[in-house]
Write a structure and sequence with these properties.
The structure holds two protein chains of two kinds.
Chain A: H1 2-5, H2 8-38, H3 54-81, H4 84-116, H5 124-143, H6 149-162, H7 166-176, H8 196-237
Helix pairs in contact in A: 2-8, 3-4, 3-6, 3-8, 4-5, 4-8, 5-6, 5-7
Chain B: H1 3-6, H2 8-24, H3 28-48, H4 52-84, H5 87-93, H6 98-127, H7 135-159, H8 166-193, H9 199-228
Helix pairs in contact in B: 2-6, 3-4, 3-6, 4-6, 4-7, 4-8, 6-7, 6-9, 7-8, 7-9, 8-9
Classes of the chains: A mainly alpha, B mainly alpha.
Amino acid sequence: MFDWLANPNRFKKITNKLEPSLMAIALLFIIFGLYFSLFDSPKDYQQGDAVRIMYVHVPSAWLASFLYLSLAVSSIFYLVWKHPLADLISISIAPIGTLFSMLTLITGSLWGKPMWGTWWVWDARLTSMLILFFFYLGFILLHNAFERKVDGSKSASVLAIIGIINLPIIKFSVDWWHTLHQPSSILRFDGPSIDNQMLLPLFLMMIGFCLFSLYIIIVNVKTKLIEKKCEAILLKLNIKEFL
Amino acid sequence: MNSVYSNWSNIFIAHVKRDILTNSRSLIDLISIVGFMILIIILFPLGLGPIKEKLNIVSNAVIWVGLILAIIPSLEKLLQKDFENGWLDQIATSPIPLEIIMLSKGISYWLIMLIPLIITSPIFAILLAMDLKNIPWLVISISAGSLAISLIGLSGSALILGARRGNILLPILIIPLMIPILIFGVGVNEAIKINASPYGNLFLLFAFTLIYLVISPFISALLVRIAIGR
């Protein structure tokens, strides 16, 4: 199955069809999600309107960790099967993950100032998210640090796989250490502990963010494919100065 | 295959000896690492002010952070010289497993660079006004954690092998990996300060060291193979 999908031409053919509708659906979900989260959802009885930050904060935190997982998985694919498309996918994921982890930290501190009375605490969840940000940053920097691009791709893939160790720490940090960050209220064994009226906009935003990042990844990968083709043409024509 | 190559412990000991010999010929690396450590330690009393109570509170953490920072400049050279003169190429084509060589690199780096820091650490502790009852535990915790630090450093230096401006990249890549060592290493002495048992943190520190002892040679060997392109 992966062989079938991993053909760059087939990838392009499928994504060309998928791309515009993906963008439209993602925007639709985000617009509806924003409407529900900003206007048509109840205030929290303790937090008031500040709870609305959560509708951006939680999806971006989930996506930051999920994107790291997919980054690591595609790095494994790259290292084991050495398919160039896997490397293009991981370097396309990395900047988006960086931005989402940054968004998580920023929205979290905006929420933390009125609620906890501080912009930042050295809580396990916050610190591990910051480390995730640095893993993304390290991946991008290492990827671009080599003369031969293949070396950078391989070394960065190894780094990405090492960084997986951080993901369970992020997920379970609120259970292992009794910290200031509240434990999860959605992904738990006894069902979600938040009200359906709040769950709806959260899931709309979640799906919207997912589709949006998928769209950006596809655009990035296609750009990188075109870049590679340009490089190959320039090499064939023996034009060195553009490389 | 020659019987010399099949005996891995012989190879291991021979390479540790080789590294110690080549490094003992010029002590400039050792002097610079200890000097850097002392200067980091000196900066803190100057920055915080020479009040003993304040220094006592931070002393434990400062020594650990100083240890991590002090070895970073020397890590860049750990594999670079052998990579550039082709020695690693030769080893990778020979029947000797590269993992054994990487393990010996990590151990010899620990012996050469970190043992001096462990020996001098009581002096740093006294400079930072640490309580006397904490000093033996500081030495124990640093001895346990420093091997893990040098093994992480080994993987880090294999990661940047052949990279442009690798020395700038190295701290960003390896400091996140050293955070667990720092947390549990500092935890040993913090437990002593509140009269609790330090063994929980100490055993976790040993566990991390053992985990890195197992995985670091394999990761480093993989990265070296990537760097030399085979």
